[in-house]
Design a protein that fits this description.
Its main location: membrane. With 329 residues, the protein is of the alpha+beta class. Among the domains are: 2-60, no CATH class; 64-165, Band 7 domain (Tetrahydropterin Synthase, Chain A, 2-Layer Sandwich), CATH 3.30.479; 270-329, no CATH class. It is 59% helix and 19% strand. The longest helix is centred in the middle third of the chain and has 69 residues, at 167-235.
C-alpha cells in the first residue's frame, strides 16, 4: 500500500511538472487541446494539461526584415535591379490569424513587393527612379499594409535600399556626369582666365598711365631746368643760342658717361668721334643762324608790294565812264 501510494504521488508530480513550461520574451506559443486551438501563451511561466494540451507552434513577435531584389524595366527601357527591405512583425492582437491563416508570410510579402515595384517603376524614367525612390517605398508599404493586416502582420517600414542599373548604363551615366563636370570646369577656367586677362590689362593700362605721367613730369622738370639754366646763363652774358648749345654738349657727355657705366650695353652712339660734340655745336649754331635769316627774309618779302596787283588812283565812277567811252569809239 505504501509503495503504491508513493508511485502514484511520483506519477502525479511528474505529470504536473511535465505540464509546466516557460515562454521567452517577445515570443508566443500556440496551444491546442485535442487538436483544436485553445489559447495563446505569452512570456512567463505557463502550464498546459499533459497529454491533452499540445504546443503546436511558436510565433516570433520581434520586428523582422525581408530583403527582396526585383529586376524591372523603366519607362526609357533601362533594366534596373531594386533591392527592397521590408520590416514587418506579427500584431499582438492578431497572433491567431498570423499562425493559422498564412502558411508562408515571406513568400506572400515577396509577391506583393514584386507586383508593386513592377507596376510603379515602368511609369518612371531612370533618373526619376533615383529621385522618387521614397515614393516607390511608400507605394510598397501601402500595398503590403492593405494585404497583410488581414493575416495578422503589420508593416513597420519599406525601404528601397539599392538601385542598380546595368553596368553599361552606369558607365554611360558616369561619362555624362564627368562630361558635365569637365564642361563646368572649363567654364570656370575660362572665366578665371578672362578675369586674369582683364586684371592684367587694367594693370598694364595703369602702368602705362603712370609711366606716361612720369615721363611727362620728367620732361616738364627737364624743361623747367633748361629754362632756369638758360636764364642763369643769360645773366652772365651768354645768349639763348649759346646757352642751348652748351646745355646740349653737356647732356651729350653725360650720355656718353652713362653708356660707359654699363659694360654689357648694346647701344651704339653715332657719330662717336672725339669731335662729335664740337660738330654738333657748330651744326646747331648754323641751323639757328639759318633759321633766323630765313625768318628775316620772309618778313621782308611779306612787306614788298605785289607787281601783279594794280593800284587804283581814280575813283570807281571815273573808271566806269572811261570804260563806256572806249566802248563807243
Amino acid at each position: 500500500m505504501g509503495i503504491t501510494f508513493f508511485i502514484l504521488v511520483f506519477l502525479a508530480l511528474f505529470l504536473f511538472f511535465s505540464g509546466i513550461f516557460t515562454v521567452r520574451q517577445q515570443t508566443a506559443y500556440m496551444i491546442e487541446r485535442l487538436g483544436k486551438f485553445h489559447s495563446v501563451r505569452t512570456a512567463g511561466l505557463q502550464f498546459k494539461v499533459p497529454f491533452i494540451d499540445r504546443t503546436v507552434g511558436r510565433i516570433n513577435l520581434k520586428i523582422q526584415q525581408l530583403d527582396v531584389v526585383v529586376e524591372t524595366k523603366t519607362k526609357d527601357n533601362v533594366f534596373v535591379r531594386l533591392k527592397v527591405s521590408v520590416q514587418f512583425k506579427v500584431l499582438d492582437e492578431s497572433i491567431y490569424e498570423a499562425f493559422y491563416k498564412l502558411q508562408n508570410p515571406t513568400e506572400q510579402i515577396t509577391a506583393y513587393v514584386f507586383d508593386t515595384v513592377r507596376s510603379e517603376v515602368p511609369k518612371m524614367r531612370l533618373d526619376d527612379v533615383f529621385e522618387r525612390k521614397d515614393d516607390i517605398a511608400l507605394a510598397i508599404r501601402r500595398e503590403l499594409e492593405d494585404a497583410m493586416n488581414e493575416y495578422g502582420y503589420g508593416i513597420v517600414k519599406a525601404l528601397v535600399t539599392d538601385i542598380d542599373p546595368d553596368q553599361a548604363v552606369k558607365n554611360a551615366m558616369n561619362h555624362i556626369n564627368a562630361a558635365e563636370r569637365q564642361k563646368l570646369s572649363a567654364e570656370y577656367e575660362a572665366e578665371s582666365e578672362r578675369i586674369r586677362i582683364v586684371a592684367r590689362a587694367k594693370a598694364e593700362a595703369e602702368s602705362k598711365r603712370l609711366q606716361g605721367q612720369g615721363i611727362a613730369d620728367q620732361r616738364r622738370e627737364i624743361a623747367r631746368g633748361l629754362e632756369e639754366s638758360v636764364d642763369l646763363l643769360n645773366k652772365v652774358g651768354i645768349n639763348s643760342q649759346e646757352a642751348s648749345a652748351l646745355i646740349l654738349v653737356t647732356q651729350h657727355y653725360d650720355t656718353l658717361q652713362q653708356i660707359g657705366q654699363h659694360s654689357n650695353s648694346n647701344l651704339i652712339l653715332l657719330p662717336n668721334a672725339p669731335t662729335a660734340a664740337s660738330d654738333m655745336l657748330t651744326q646747331m649754331i648754323t641751323s639757328f643762324v639759318s633759321t633766323q635769316e630765313l625768318a628775316e627774309q620772309m618778313k621782308i618779302k611779306n612787306k614788298r608790294p605785289n607787281p601783279n596787283v594794280k593800284v587804283l588812283d581814280k575813283p570807281k565812277e571815273e573808271i566806269y565812264l572811261d570804260a563806256r567811252s572806249e566802248e563807243k569809239e
